[in-house]
Specification:
Helices cover 56% and strands 16% of the residues. By secondary structure, it is of the alpha+beta class. The chain folds into four domains: 3-188, no CATH class; 206-306, 2-Layer Sandwich (Beta-Lactamase); 316-386, Signal transduction histidine kinase, dimerisation/phosphotransfer (DHp) domain (Helix Hairpins); 394-536, Heat Shock Protein 90 (2-Layer Sandwich), CATH 3.30.565.10. Strands 2-1-5-4-3 form a five-stranded antiparallel β-sheet. A five-stranded mixed β-sheet has the order 7-9-10-12-11, covered by helices on one side. The longest helix is centred in the N-terminal third of the chain and has 55 residues, at 151-205.
């Protein structure tokens, strides 16, 4: 056993010796003389005083750095003192023979099984010597008057000696088993402590915020990374409901339902976390099932990532992209304006000359008006793209807006063979800017019709998708978009049409972004193109 355990056992052993010695000293004078036979009570008192004094010294100064030799010393001292007590109180007839059993048992606990057997052997030899000396050998003349040797005392001697050995064997075996069990339990406790320390180290050191929730959606664990992200300490957070930290922005019941259907699934959600200081942090939460070792679900574990750095990097990338787009935009504007300016310059030069006839002047005046209108349209579209007004969001029936756009389109562009398929049904209410939303629908549908000059199939759909989002799709069966042009369709002034300004899809892209949504395009040359607009729910 460990030295620390032996020290504790020695202290307990010393207290037991001290208590027994004091008890016997107190009871000695009042015990009947027939129970304490013998004529040397001084020896009994002296042995008990030595036992009490040695116990006091052990309790006062401790066993020191080497407890096992001290245990051997006290074990041998106890055997000697008990032998003196037995010899002074009647030898084989003494009632204090049971003290040998207590001493042997203590030796088995303090020492090993071998130590207990050794103490039992020493006790047997000394006890046998006392009995034989008083009954067989004439040494008893020094103590009391000679008496007859009785077979009962000899039988008691052998029985007691055998008892000492049996006690040593049984108690030693039990002590060894207890010692092995204690060591095994200590090893298991140490392994558990090490495992818990390792888990705590990993849990606290990981850079991702980890938040554990019970079945009632109360926070049960909150690591350091989560503290830094949330701006709250773990003690003030643990035990509080989830809504106290994130509000109702994350639908936990839906997340639990998803995980119940697929226990290995994990769901991701992005939201804004409000800190106590009033700042808002964009975070991404990934939820998984939290289970016990037996597989029972205990709750949820959420991994929380701070997206502030990513959002800042995205903003820098968008700024860099805008600067690059600005360069291309300037070149495109110059190209778009040069042609009408050249036409205007030529027409004005002819008009200012006196050689122009009346009919020619009329045609030249129409050219000036047309090119002026063209310039005005280019500038108007560019200003609308460059200086967007704030959104005026309100509840709009998307199905009704789509139907109105399609009706206008049928009257404006009556292409032979044009077939319009409607994949929506009303009412489908969503919060958008009605004017700009209709502009998005009009531009997408008009582009689809213009991509089918000889007629075709226009499919327009609108539906709600998981995650509280609206999805609007516009697909045509026209000539499609070349793969090299697909990445540039949303750039300002990029157009594959001879008379296009290239601002229609750019406005669509910008308006959708202002609504917090996304627009996706898929096209196969010769088969058609499909634009998909996805808009999140808005509460403002």
């Amino acid at each position: 056993m460990k030295a620390l355990n032996v020290n504790a056992l020695l202290r307990g052993f010393a207290w037991a010796r001290l208590g027994l010695a004091v008890l016997l000293l107190a009871l000695g004078p009042v015990m009947p003389s027939d129970l304490v036979s013998g004529e040397h009570p001084v020896v009994l008192a002296l042995a008990l005083l030595i036992a009490a004094a040695s116990s006091g010294v052990l309790l006062l100064f401790g066993p020191g750095a080497q407890p096992r030799p001290v245990a051997w010393l006290f074990g041998l001292l106890d055997i000697v003192l008990i032998t003196a007590i037995v010899a002074s109180t009647g030898g084989g007839r003494s009632i204090f023979g049971f003290l040998y059993v207590l001493s042997v048992t203590g030796a088995c606990v303090l020492l090993s099984r071998t130590g207990g057997l050794a103490m039992a052997g020493v006790a047997s030899v000394l006890y046998a010597g006392v009995v034989l000396g008083r009954t067989v050998f004439p040494t008893n003349v020094f103590y009391e008057a000679p008496g007859e040797t009785t077979a009962l005392e000899l039988l008691s001697m052998f029985l007691n000696a055998g008892t000492f050995m049996i006690v040593a064997i049984v108690a030693g075996g039990l002590a060894e088993q207890f010692r092995a069990t204690s060591q095994e339990l200590e090893t298991q406790r140490k392994d558990l402590r090490d495992l818990q320390a390792f888990k705590d180290l990993v849990f606290q050191s990981v850079g991702t915020g980890l938040i554990a929730l019970d079945r009632d959606h109360r926070i049960t664990a909150f690591n350091r990374a989560a503290e830094e992200i949330a701006g709250r300490s773990a003690p003030e957070t643990i035990g509080r409901p989830w809504t106290a930290l994130f509000g109702d922005s994350v639908p936990l019941p839906e997340i639990e339902a998803t995980i119940e259907r697929n226990p290995r699934a994990s769901t991701r959600h992005e939201t804004l976390l409000r800190r106590p200081d009033g700042t808002a942090v964009p975070v991404r939460l990934t939820f998984s099932a939290l289970r016990s070792g037996e597989g029972d679900r205990l709750g949820l574990i959420g991994a929380c990532d701070d997206l502030s750095a990513i959002r800042a990097m995205e903003a820098r990338m968008r700024q860099a992209d805008r600067l690059a787009t600005l360069g291309r935009l300037a070149a495109n504007i110059a190209h778009e304006i040069r042609n009408p300016l050249a036409s205007l310059t030529g027409a004005i030069e002819v008009l200012t000359s006196t050689a122009a006839a009346g009919d020619a002047r009329e045609r030249l005046s129409q050219i000036v008006m047309r090119e002026s209108e063209r310039l005005n349209q280019i500038i108007t579209n560019f200003l609308e793209y460059a200086r967007p007004a704030p959104l005026a969001v309100e509840a709009v029936d998307v199905a009704d807006a789509l139907e109105g756009v399609l009706v206008l389109l049928e009257h404006r562009a009556p292409a032979a063979g044009l077939k319009i398929l409607r994949g929506f049904s009303g009412p489908l209410v969503w919060r958008v800017d009605p004017q700009r939303f209709r502009q998005v629908l009009w531009n997408l549908c008009l582009n689809a019709v213009e991509a089918m000059p000889e007629g075709g199939e226009l499919r327009v759909g609108a539906t709600l998708v998981p995650g509280h989002k609206l999805e609007v799709s516009v697909a045509d069966s026209g000539h499609g978009i070349a793969p090299d042009d697909l990445a540039h369709v949303f750039e300002p002034f990029f157009s594959t049409k001879a008379d296009g300004t290239g601002l229609g899809l750019s406005l669509v892209h910008r308006i959708v972004q202002e609504h917090g949504g996304e627009v996706d395009v898929r096209s196969t040359p010769g088969l058609g193109t499909m634009f998909t607009v996805t808009l999140p729910a808005r509460h403002a």
